[in-house]
Amino acid sequence: MRIGARKPRRKARFFFFVLIVALLGCGLWLALRVGPAPEVELRTDRPAIGKATTVIAGFSEPTHGLGSIRLELIQGDRVEVLEQRSMKRGSLLPWSGDHGTAEVVLTTIVGTTGFDWLDDGEVVLRATADRSVGYLRRGEPVVVETTLPVRLRPPRLELLSSQHYGQQGGSGAVRYRVGETAVKSGVRAGTHESPGSALEGGRPGDYFAIFALPWNLDDAGEIRLFAEDDAGNRVELAFLDLFKPLSKRVDTIRISDSFLERVVPAIASRTPGFDDSPPLLEQYLVINGELRRAELGRVAELAAQSEPSFLWSGPFLQMTNSELKANFAQTREYLYDGREVDRQTHLGLDLASTARAPVPAPNAGRVISAGWMTLYGNAVAIDHGFGLMSLSGHLSSIDVTEGDAVDRGQVIGRSGTTGLAGGDHLHLEIFVHGQSVDPLQWLDGKWIEDNITSKLTGDI
Ligand SMILES: [Zn+2]
To answer: Are residues 138 and 281 in the same domain?
Structure first.
């Protein structure tokens, strides 16, 4: 009996000992534990600080959650806390399911607009996140820093060419010099920008731009030469000596049922997703409105692929023995059954000759698109370089394919009535950086010499 009674007591002592060791182990783990390092990421929308640069700081720690985080702006001895937050961490017990705040993104604007003490030079952006640690440990926080240049002055911009005569809906060229901090420059006309390119054979910083003046912009004060640096500092200056508004031209187009029956189903059947259930006139209005705008958007995409070299030379060619039937920027009133049903602006030249007349490449270049282009029907778009592009539309047949290099005057197809065409004719449209411009200027050798060629050469 006495021997038997001693055994359970020894067993209990053993379990007690194991329990103490386990508790001590847990305690030590709690005291010395180091949680995973939070991930910290710093991004900015610009590579430099100017008036306003967006700073995005991302913090994440999905296991125990984030504790406190901080974002600071430092220049010299000055440290400005941009944002600071403290969050309650998740539970330490792995089975609790409480992971705290796993992710925080701080977004703020840094620049001279909000911090007028910033000087030219450099700043440091610092993002800090503390780390979950045990009671006996001092946790080293995770710190991510990025150094950015501060630029308070816009780049230098100097006009080199002179005597710029602009026409609403027209084109032009300008030569200028920019400071080395410029990353973007050119001509702004309203919301349209014609980007400049480095001038071959010029001094460092010498640029030129072939520019478009949109047909629907009549305010000369909105036409400016500009340069911008990577901090978003921008300088603009007026450079036009004269600006001629466009004379208003209105043309009336009568839409007949036989016309609708010929053109609408032909376009509808070739336009994916087109709803051909409404009456023909309604379908026609969708083609003349929505599809017209969509097609111009596609043209702007093609223009962005323009080669940075002069592929053309001399005046652009008009189709041989053709007569001008409709002009550029002509307002068209569309009448159906005697009432006005639509109004659009015609943005090319309509040239008529005999039916199926040979159509020349208006100038040398590379075929950038050859095929069906909705309203334009069968069309050939040619890139002439530095944002200059021509489009020949309503063709009955096409003799070139995309990628072909073409010579000035080379036959690219035959005139026709495809797309939105009343009768056999050629629609010739010229684009400068995706913007339709008056083709008559480009058909005129003297105009090209006075307004393009002479602006790109010569001394200052
Ligand atoms: Zn036309």
So the answer is: no
